[in-house]
From TrEMBL:
Keyword field: ATP-binding, Nucleotide-binding, Transport
Signal peptide: none
Organism of provenance: Limimaricola cinnabarinus LL-001
Start and end residues of each ABC transporter domain: 5-234
PROSITE patterns, per the entry: ABC_TRANSPORTER_1, ABC_TRANSPORTER_2
Protein name stated in the entry: ABC-type multidrug transport system, ATPase component
Amino acid sequence: MPPIVSVRDLTKTYSGGFTALDHVSLDIEEGEIIALLGPNGAGKTTLISTVCGITMPSGGTVEVGGHDVVRDWRRARDMIGLVPQEISLEPFSTVWNNVRFTRGLFDRPRDDAYLERLLRDLSLWEKRDAKVMELSGGMKRRVLIAKALSHGPRVLFLDEPTAGVDVELRRDMWRVVARLREEGVTIILTTHYIEEAEAIADRIGVISKGRIMLVERTEDLMARLGRKELRIELTEPVSELPESLRREGLMRAEDGSALIYTYDTRAERTGITALLADIHAAGLQLADLSTSNSSLEEIFVDLVKEDAA
């Protein structure tokens, strides 16, 4: 089955000479959730805007559902829902009319039952007759999400959808995302909440300086780049590491109460057995052992640092 979104050698250079996208290629499969991570100015929003037909590319091609976003933009855009970062709504219109109007723009037949379910899912039903100007910032963002979903898109773009919103909205948002996924909707999101990407995304894409650094399945990325940390609690603190324990990956905790050993989960040998034997030989007594995996946030920071070097 061909990808539902296909980006080939996409570039975007603005009139001032700034290159926001530098030969980006990316395939997104139908029904998957992909999270795009990158620092501010990396090109995430430009990529989304170009796929959605808001920004014209300088070169390359983009297809959505087999439709070129430039030559066949009506059909391509018909498949897409977009929740932008900026809140832009008709302030004097009610919530219900905002959402119903957007559905009409896509030439969809009237379906009040569908819109009611949508508003209920986003905890907006009780506010359906309120004017947008009367809503809080979080409620306005809910209206943006409802508008993006009003025409039943097959591809949904979420550009920082939960930035600066309350916990309740984030919970409602991910509940809706889970339902959409079950219905086969493809979801592409950018987020600064890296724990969300790790929790819900099938794949992670990392963008830096307008280039795709990598796109991998979340679990594969964690396994390939992840590190594991062994924390060795001591019964008595040490002021410095004994000479016999000085090795790569081992450091003393700031207060000396523990030793911290970082190792590669993919390595054939971790070195833990030899380390524990050396600790015993050095006369140190263990109080406890615990392990933890490196987070996606640490991996992301390391990747961006490598790219900046």
